[in-house]
Structure formats: structure tokens, C-alpha cells
Amino acid sequence: MKSRTVRIVLVIILVLILGVSLGLYNKWNIVAWYLGLPAPQYSVKVLHDVKVPMRDGVKLSADIYRPSAEGKYPVILLRTMYGKGNANHKYAFTGSVFASQGFIFVVQDVRGKFDSAGDFYPYIYEAADGFDTIEWAGTREWSTGKVGTYGFSYWGSTQWLAAPMGSKYLKAMVPVVTSQDVYQRWIYNGIFRINDVLVWHYENAPKRAQSAKGVDWDTAVRKLPLLKADDALGVDIPAYNDWIRHPQPGPYWDRIRVDNKVAKITAPALIIDGWYDYYLNLALGDYNRMIKNGGSAEARRSMLLVGPWTHASTSKFSDADFGKEASFLKKFRMILLWFNYWLKGEQNGILSEGPVKIFTMGANTWKTVGEWPLKNTRYTAYYLHSEGNANTVRGNGILSAVKPATEKPDSFLSDPENPVPSVGGTSIFGNAKAGPVDQQTVESRDDVLVYTSAPLTEDLEVTGPVKLVFYAASSARDTDFAAKLADVDPAGKSINIQAGVIRARYRDSLERPSLLEKGKIYRMEIEIGNTSNLFKKGHRIRLQLAGSNFPEYGRNLNTGADNGTTAEMVKSRQLVYHDRDNPSQLILPVIPKGN
After folding, report:
1. Residue among 129, 277, 410, 487 flagged as catalytic
2. Which residues pair with 307 in a beta bridge?
């Protein structure tokens, strides 16, 4: 995140210098040029620490960026837990851009954070407080009565949570890298994303965020039981403890979900996410719910934008090059068009091209399609094969379209004391490095099964949901299986595309877990996740299958006991079958050539 911020700042400085040298004295003209926006018509003024009253009398602090010219303007609202004056999140920059384009931009500290009164507890106040703030913004003397909401991650959650409350002033939303159901973001298939959960709570539990600099996160995320991991850092965080005590869906999490309230949402949403963001699969579900079940014709005109981005909107990586068009900033113009259409009534063609815009990695191009997943998808099975030794990239694991006959199963030892490390992926917290990263260190481990296709004879586009159906047995009462799809170039560089994990006790249901019988073969499925990637001619498709992907996903201690409140762990022997009766297969969403 910091390196991306530095790059943006340097570019802006350069463009400003260029502008001065050319006599373009208005810096927002230069910014607009760089972002591909219309030339701004307004200079900007800022009001700081405006107190906004909530229904219970608590006052929340907001900064207001507005055109210097008097008059009524549509409002864009951003509600944040990270501090409205936080330079790292560039609220002042964003607010000034919107204000220079003829909007009033309100950025507000949520309850209990920074300059706002009250007590903070993640998510639970955001529906009512968000509604009250939208009502306030819609009725100011400087407001046209049309309010849009904007923001990333937690700021995005504040949008979704308030939307079903039904404010008549809410006319459009832009939720970025977030979702309608935060349970699955933090607790994926019943598995704590422990790196994110622990670091995020540690940094953000206080009224003013505290730095995690200097914390030994490699040690911290291994602390057992998980319930005591915050105490080991010298803090006791009630919300963290509550989360660890609630690993399954239920009443605790139902308070902060709106995926079951979409029929009450009347504002359309431009939903934005990235192929390397942990919200991705949830955001795609949000989009399909909105267009099918949204509470108005406008809501059902929601749109979707997915790029090659991490949660921090990074698009530049040392191990993968997605080209010049990959930048998130290149799509800021679409956000402005969205707000201009819904809040100002401009007929700018934003809805005419098609509702879904996606970036295909490998091809490094954008395309517009009519739906997600694509209608012409051919779900194609690549079967797992080996001679019983698929361990490491040096083993004999194969992916092919040929169905298996008689084959020996593969086996590996899953040791929670020595878990398979997360390399690349979606986590941005602690010591994690999100995005596409060469997997060769992971694939050299004996506890990782590796199945690889022959070099492709032609380009193969994979766009849509990827799934692994496999047959496995374990010596443990409960255990995990972690799958990862990778793209291998002719030189052997293996780049992670998507990853998923299953906790065996939840193989049939999150609500009704059941433990394993030792040695019994079970059919399981891992929704590895959605992607759009062009596997080029000469490249190979690769599947990794292991017992962990840590610390992005918390370890299974393999005992069958509660993984959040116990510390005992055991090793487990895993068997993966791929024969006539147990045809384990990777199912890829293949797009026919020319589509």
C-alpha cells in the first residue's frame, strides 16, 4: 500500500510541475487530465470537524469538501474507521477531486473512532448511523437531495449496511472491495483468516489506530489458542474475542449482513473488486443478487467492474506484469460517470456498453460482457493423475482431460506445527504479500501435491468460477485441504491465480458440521474461486493441493476440537484418490476462442 501511495504521489507531483511549466495554474485541471476526467469547473473549499447528530444524540465528526461557488450540489458520502484526516487513505485528495467536479464530498469518522463520539464496535452501528448521516446530507441547504456513497473495504461495508434502511435520498453507491456479508470475508468457509483478523483488530481496536510496526507477526499469528492471541500482544480486544467464539454463521453475524435484504435496497451499485482481493467471490455474488432481486428498477441496473488488483488496489507486481491498462486509477473516470449519471442526470452512456467489465490477465485486456459467469462458458474437467507420488513439482502428478482408471492414491502429512506457508494470495496485513507470486518454494515441499498439465498447444482463456472436486481420506477427525490454481510459464515460473480451502467438518454444511471417520473416503468440493486468466500457448495449468495455506487461512489443529479455543495439535495423514471410482477433477470455466 505504501509503495503504491508513493508512486501516485510522485506522478501527481510530476504532473503538477508540468502544469506549472505550461502555465496551467489550477492543479485540479492537471489531476483531471491525469485521471482522464473532464476539466473541473470549481475550486475547492473545506469545512473541518462538522458535527452530525445521530438518533441517540451521539455526534459524529465530518469534513466537507465542496465547490467554492455557492449553490446546491449532489453529495457523495464516505464513512471511515481509519480517520478522515488519514493521509495514507487520501481522503483529502479524493474529496477535492469530487468537489472540483461539482459534488459535495462528506468524509465522516464512524462512531467511536478518531474525532467522533461514542464507542466503536466493528460494523454493528453502521446501518443506523449511515442512514442518519444520509438523511442529514440529503436535507442540508447545500444539497440537491441526491446522495451517493463511496468507499473501499470497511467504508464499503458502511454503504451496504445502511442501504436497506430505505433513505429516499440515497441514489447511488460505489462499494469497492467489500461485500454484503462480512462473515465470509473474515471467516472463510468456517476458517479464520487469522492473519487479517488478528492484525486488523490489533491496529484498529483503539479510538485512534495504532501502528503494528515492530510486532513480530510471524510469531503472533501462531499463538494458540487463538482466543489468547490478542492477549499475547498485550491487549484484550472484546470484538476479536467475540469473533473467535463465533466461527459459524448465526445470530451474532446475522446482525451485520444484508445479502438477505437486497429487496429493500433501491439504490444501484457500481460494484468494484479485484482478482487478488479476499472479497472477490462475495462481491460477484452481491452483483448477481442486485440485478436479480434489487428493490427497484434502478437497483437492478447495478454494474460490476473487476480488475487485476489486490485489496489495496495494487496492480504492479514483481512476478507478473499486467500492462499499462491494469491501473485502478485508469477506472476512476467510470466512477465519476456513474455518479454524474445517477446524481446529476447526465446522459453519458455509462449504462449502454454492458453491465460487466472485467480484465483478463495474461491477455492484459479489458472486455465488457453481459453477465457473470459468461453464458458461453464451457466447464471443462481436468482429471488428477499420478503413479502415487504427486508430492512436489518433481513428482509425477498430471492434469489431463483423460478420465482415470486404476491408479494409486497420493498421500501427504499435514502438520499444523509446520504448515504450508501462504505465498501470494489476498492478505495485505502483517507480513503478508498479496497478489501473484512465484510458487516454486511452495511446490518444493513434500507436503504439497502438484498436478500439472502438458504445455498448451494454443491459448486457453479461463474466465469464471474454478472448482476442485476430489476424493480424500484422513487419519484425523477433522482436517483442511487447501487448493491453488497456478499458471506455469515455459521457464517454470508458477504464478498463483486463485486459491481456496475447505475444512472437512464443514464439507456438507457450515451450520451442521460433522467429523470424519478415520480412513473413510469422502467426496469434497473446494470452490477455488473466480478469475479471468489467459493461459498462453506453451504455458501449463497447475493445481497445488495441501493441508494448509497459512497464515492467510488459520490452521486446522486436526483434533476435531474447537480450533479457536484449544491448543493441542496432531499430525494427520491425508490420502487423495483419483481412479475410476473416485475421479478427482479440476473444473475450469473455459471460454471458446473468439468470444
Report:
1. 277
2. 274
Which residue among the candidates 311, 385, 539, 578 is catalytic per the annotation?
A: 311
The yes-or-no answer on residue 68 being catalytic is no
Is residue 448 located within the same domain as residue 515? yes
Please indicate whether residue 539 is annotated as part of the active site: no
| Overall size of the chain counted in residues | 595
Quick one: angle between helices 126-138 and 154-162, nearest 10?
A: 80
The amino acid at residue 160 is W
What digits encode the pLDDT tens for the residues 392-413? 999 999 999 999 999 999 999 9
Q: How far is CA 570 from the centre of its chain?
A: 32
- Compute the average pLDDT of residues 530-550: 98
The answer to whether the beta carbons of residues 58 and 118 sit under 8 Å apart is yes
Residue with cell 482408471: 405
Task: Give residue 382's Cα distance to chain centre.
Answer: 27
Residues 61 and 211: their CA atoms lie apart, in Å, by 23
- Residue 203 is part of which domain span? 192-246
* Per-residue model confidence (pLDDT) at position 75: 98
CATH of the domain at 409: 2.60.120.260
| Model confidence, pTM | 0.94
Coil, strand or helix: which one is 145? strand
Are 423 and 402 found together in one domain?
yes
Cα 442 to the center of its chain, rounded Å: 23
From 161, 156, 58, 62, select the one nearest 111 (Cα to Cα). Answer: 58
> Is 411 labeled as catalytic in the residue annotation?
no
Mean pLDDT score, 80-89: 92
- Phi, psi angle pair for 181, to nearest 5°: -130, 105
pLDDT digits (tens, 9 = 90+) for 92-139: 999 999 999 999 999 999 999 999 999 999 999 999 999 999 999 999
Q: How far apart are CA 34 and CA 39, in angstroms?
A: 11
Q: Of residues 153, 167, 327, 453, which has the active-site annotation?
A: 153
E strand intervals along 476-521? 480-488, 494-503
